[in-house]
Amino acid sequence: MSSKQVKFLPVAGLKSGTSGTNVKKVSNNKGETKSEISKRLEKCKEENSTCLDLSNLVLRELPSSTLSLKIITEIFIYKNKLTTLPPEICKLQNLKSIGAAENNISCLPEEMMDLKKLEILDLRHNKLPEIPPVVFKLKSLKKLFLNFNKLSCVSSDIAHLTELRSLTLNENKISELPEEIGMLKNLDLLDLAKNNLSVLPMELCNCTNLSQIVCKYNRLECLPENIGNLTKLTRLNCCGNKLTHIPDSICKCTLINDLGINENKLTYIPPTFLLCMPLVQDFNISRNEFSNIPYSSSDCIKNVKTVNIEGNKIRVIPHGIFSNAKLLEKLNVSNNTLQGLPFDMGTWSSLVELNLSNNNLTVLRDDIAYLSELEQLNLSFNQLEALPPEIGALRKLRILDIESNQLRSLPIEIEYLAELEKLNLQNNMLTGMPRQIGFMEKVYDLNISENNLRTIPGEIGNMRSLQRLNINSNNLLNMIPVEITRCHLLNYLNIENCPLYEIPSEFVQGGPQKVLTYLTTISPYH
After folding, report:
1. pLDDT digits (tens, 9 = 90+) for 115-165
2. pLDDT of residue 274
């Protein structure tokens, strides 16, 4: 493509230049802009700098005096209003890096092919409808940034960029890659995120120096069957696609430590998948279509710290699957169809966070007592009718969420949850609360709304950290204990849809603050 011919912007009174990196945006006033341009060019000359920064100057054309700075190796022209670069830029023969992101560039001049030393070209956030043909003639190019443009294809001429190490094409509209991309033998990073790709060419796996592939949020239905050729791969992120399986050959990619395969349609991954990838610490297969947790032995997960299986169709957690997972800290099995928990759940002793919400659990095993490191436990949206007394053994628990179950009472052993800070009991069948809640002095957020509470024990006044209290929609609750006035940090109280017949109606109608005022007047603690 031929470039638009660009006139240079004359700069009056130029003596030398600037290359500052801490650049402030100048006003749109033309006089002030010219003055700032002059200062930067002058400073660059005076300091004999190899870096020129003309960013944030509302430039529509490059100043002509730029061409006199023959020694510069880097030029930064970010955040201007350039539509192209001038042909004369080819006179800056020492240029190694051009940073022209966040402009309005739609084409580049053919003369740029003379920049034989150019290694980095940053054209992010521009208006390129295609990769300018001259780019493929920049044989020394090592890093090419083209994300956030309007690209719909990649030319087969990409094969000429044999020195390329990093290629970012994310946030475009690319629907296909040429097989010639396999000629980029030195390529280390390829970012294709958020395009319209439905397939990756087999030839891509000839780029055996690739260590990072990001192809998330495309339309991929499969990965190349020969992906195992990429034995240097350390990062593979293909989440948010339409993958139904992962090729067996991926087990040869033993160096992967950053893996993203969530949000697909996966029903199969190789059974030895994790066993072959001992460096993976975050195993995330959430929002797929697995009916079983893929694993071959308990050794598969022994090095993993986080397991996320949320949003699948899993009914059973296999016995022994996490028995050797001594490093496992976070386990998310929410939004599945679990009917129960395995007999050996007590071996999950290293867990800090456990999310079992949105399943079909009717019983919480008393083995929960062995999860002594647990700090967060989410049991919401199940069918639990009771909590085991052993819940009191979780002395480090900070957050307990049991919303939307069928609890009719709480065990008195909750008094031992001395570190608890948030307790959510919304939408159960509780008719009362045990007096032992008064021992939970660190709770600052208590939600007991949408239950069948008739009374609240006065010991609630011992919850000195309480800041938020939801008791709304308890249709049988006629009184709030006056001891609530001892909770001096309380700043949010929801009493909506509570009759509170024992409190004068004018105070109830006046809202929570009026109710607290009334309780204060009748309180012996006032």
Report:
1. 999 999 999 999 999 999 999 999 999 999 999 999 999 999 999 999 999
2. 85
The reported pLDDT for the residue numbered 23 is 44
For 217-360, strand residue ranges (E) read 235-237, 258-260, 282-284, 306-308, 330-332, 353-355
Closest CA to 354 of 365, 198, 149, 292: 365
Q: How far apart are CA 486 and CA 398, in angstroms?
A: 23
What span, in angstroms and rounded, lies between the C-alpha atoms of 243 and 509? 57
**CB proximity list for 484: less than 8 A, separation 6 or greater:** 456, 460, 461, 469, 490, 516, 519
Please list the ranges in the chain whose pLDDT falls under 70: 1-32, 296-298, 526
Give the SS3 label for residue 522: helix
Give the model confidence (pLDDT) of 215-242 as tens digits.
Answer: 999 999 999 999 999 999 999 999 999 9
3-state SS record for 103-148 = CCCCCCCHHHHHCCCCCEEECCCCCCCCCCHHHHHCCCCCEEECCC
Q: Are 396 and 368 in contact (CB under 8 A)?
A: no
Is 447 in contact with 423 (CB distance < 8 Å)?
yes
Whether the Cβ atoms of residue 474 and residue 452 lie closer than 8 Å to each other: yes
DSSP per residue, 330-348: EEE--SS------TTGGG-
Q: From CA 279, how far away is CA 211, in angstroms rounded?
A: 14
Give the CA dihedral 35, 38, 39, 45, nearest 10 degrees.
-170
Report the alpha-carbon distance of residue 126 to residue 132 in Å, rounded.
12
Q: DSSP label at 255?
A: T
Residue 31: which residues within 8 A CB-CB, separation 6 or more? Answer: none
Widest distance between CA atoms in the chain: 89
Measured distance CA(295)–CA(317) in Å, rounded: 11
pTM of the model: 0.87
The residue behind tokens 């998330």 is 216
At position 47, the amino acid (one-letter code) is: E
Q: How many CB atoms lie within 10 A of CB 56?
A: 17
Residue 389, φ and ψ in degrees, nearest 5: -55, -25
pLDDT for res 28: 54
pLDDT of residue 31: 62
